[in-house]
Amino acid sequence: MTTKKDSILGNPVYPIMFAIGGVHLLNDSLQAVIPAIFPVLKVERGLTFTQLGLILFCLNMVASVLQPVVGYLSDRKPKPYALPFGMMFSLVGIAGLAFAPEYWMILVSVMLLGFGSAVFHPEGSRVSFMAAGSKRGLSQSIYQVGGNTGQALAPLISAFILVPLGQKGAAIFIVVAALAVFILTKISAWYKKQLEQEKLNSRKKVLLSSLGDLTKRQVGIALGLLLVIIFARSFYVTSITSFYVFHLINMYGFTEKEGLLVIFIFLALGAVGTFFGGPMADRIGRKNVIVLSLALPIPLCLLLPHVPFWAAIILLVFIGFFIMLSFSVTVVYAQELVPSKIGTMAGLTVGLAFGMGAIGAVVIGALMDSIGVLPTMVVVSFLPIIGLVGLALPRDQKMTAA
Fold first, then answer.
1. Using one digit for the tens of pLDDT, what is the confidence trace for 145-159?
2. pTM
């Protein structure tokens, strides 16, 4: 049972923070099944690379386009039980993927997964924000590290579950979706009580921001800069997670399985970086972490396509950690730019990351077909430089508990 102070402006509610982070892991592990199942679909269904790319595009674009819409609607009228409701769509989608006999059914299934993800992410971020108290960076880190850990499981899911069991092996994840529905039902009950408590409170709730008073023009410019940063980060991360394996195979003679394990290392360190980014931002400022996140990896990214394999693995460890430091921080920064639109800002920032990942997969794939694998890796190594626009972001101040 929480007290009146255990809310947005009071003490952190750690059980809720960790519960929503755990469900984020379950949700994104469901999404990780999609790229993980590609080798199976190519062999069992004879799909082309174009058809596989379209599957990923459908998943990410549905999630990307709908997230800001869901966030906007939630800001107008929060719906606590939208969380388990949306996860039910993911459950149906993963079941459809496991047993779909036709390509069009696979597309429908991944779009259902995309819809469930679109509902979960902005609402989940809102719950994380409500439970954070003055620890917004920490809370958002716990939430986002769950998702990044789920995504990092994709290579392991492919190597140890789907390749041995085939397409029907995806049915195992029906249990994962069902567990997520159960936990979200409990979280939604807490969410509903928080909303009822706010209605009973005669004093209007004021959401504090570490950014102080900004004009509409300043807010608009800052949001634009933030979206540029997310674009640069998402394009680069997509290039590594989806296509760097071909560079490992071509340049170093790695097998596909060995390459996938290297990508897992990158994603795992990215999850670690995501966790540390939030608490670090609470201490040294959100802007500082956002800038450091893309400035520090620049020389490492530029070196990555040209070094021997042992050095490449070391570089990937540091790049993965630093470039994902800002993942949760950009969400919190956007929410504090527009504190009255918590769900919309979460949907916009995380949704844009999905969208940029979808578009990035198409652009980078086409570039590889056009100029080759190594030249493409050289081109994308310059992407983090774009993130230096973060130097122009308004500076934030330390948050204190109410």
1. 888 888 888 778 877
2. 0.76
